[in-house]
Amino acid sequence: MGHTRKANVHPRLLTSLTDPYRRKVTAEDLFHYVYAILQTPIYRTTYADFLRIDFPRIPFPTERSAFEAMAALGERLVALHLLDSSELDPPNVRFEGEGDNRVAGKKTDGFGYNPDGESVGINRSQRFARIPPALWNYRIGGYQVLEKWLKDRKGRRLSTDDIQTYCRIATALARTMEIQAELDDLYPAVEENPLEMRLGK
Description:
201 residues; alpha+beta; four-stranded antiparallel sheet; two-stranded antiparallel sheet; 48% helix; elongated
């Protein structure tokens, strides 16, 4: 039995953007735009309280070019976070050393981050390299992503797929940080003169 996809978006929201942007705005455009807004550091800082306790306010810029630029970056972020982006090939991070690929349980056995070498040891002889401190410290939802991923696998041997996934996750986060800097540069144009949205009933 086939399934029909249906956007979970108020139809008037899409039509209300058509006139000011002089083009049809699709549900995918809107999703990518909102995703970009929610990943913008300035926005997340400004509306931190609302993001914790309520539905966040999503501003829309007056200028079509600002909307499209944000949506384009949002589309890149979605692909990166799904690990389905060509920007991950080849990954920046690499796996080095000889051993059994087992993630050690404590620092004395080689587990941990080395800021000077910009590497993450999983045991005494093997490591993930090319991980600068800012990338190692990157957090999502309060968790230090690269550390938590490895801690969840302590005592296990990493498969080839596991190693590749970790390298791609780290690369996706690095690209995310670059895109977030671009979002911060674009965001003032969003808040400068936002559209007034009246959807009605």
